[in-house]
Specification:
Pfam families: Cupin_5. Helices cover 11% and strands 36% of the residues. With 202 residues, the chain is mostly beta strands. The model has no long low-confidence stretch (mean pLDDT 89).
Length: 202
């Protein structure tokens, strides 16, 4: 497994954004996301479809812009019930997916990959995370997308959720759950990617 580490350490308190990141946030009318980073819903399909054995409904699909920045570089581990299709617009980052639903009596497989425009080196410009998997992400440096003053603009993607996103279908990974899914070495490597208020005191 590639060593997971934060090139842009998550700040311990709110951090002022770089001017180019601020411009993107303002241009797209983005707002702070509970996972980290910034977002704005851009589409919600008007068709409602049944889920959960017909006891509830969801929009057929929803779509958001999602931005990680040097001031908010971490998308903390979380899980959705629905499939999420990701499309890269600019920047570079690393995704870590814990396949909790594929565990067979032992620990869960972990998948890591880099998203970026260097497809010849295996970077992804589009990727899918199925529902039920824990997903975390963080910003990587990408000089190609620095502004003229050398300041990072961030990782900008679109996320399309099918069926559409609903807050009751979403939860964050806790330290205790991580310990049950991963080896102690993996927990030590990746605990920093947990949402701060989900890290239990040891």
């Amino acid at each position: 497994m590639t060593r997971t580490h934060p090139p842009f350490p998550p700040p311990s308190q709110p951090t002022n954004e770089t001017p180019p990141a601020t411009q993107t946030i303002q241009s797209l009318d983005l707002h702070p996301h509970p996972e980290g980073g910034y977002y704005q819903e851009t589409f919600r399909h008007p068709q409602e479809i049944p889920i959960a054995n017909g006891t509830a409904t969801r929009s057929a699909s929803t779509r958001i812009h999602y931005l990680l920045t040097p001031g908010s570089p971490l998308g903390a581990f979380h899980r959705n019930k629905s499939r999420t299709v990701h499309t890269l617009h600019r920047g570079r980052g690393r995704y870590v997916v814990i396949h909790a639903d594929e565990r067979k009596g032992g620990k869960a497989p972990v998948e890591e990959f880099v998203v970026g425009h260097d497809v010849e080196r295996g970077e992804k410009v589009e990727w899918v995370v199925e529902g039920g998997k824990w997903k975390g992400s963080y910003l990587l440096p990408e000089k190609e997308y620095e502004d003229d003053d050398g300041e990072e603009r961030g990782l900008l993607i679109t996320e399309t959720v099918e069926p559409g996103f609903a807050i009751e279908d979403h939860d964050f990974l806790s330290l205790q759950e991580m310990k049950e899914l991963l080896t102690p070495e993996q927990v030590e490597e990746m605990a920093w990617m947990l949402r701060e208020n989900s890290i239990e005191k040891q």
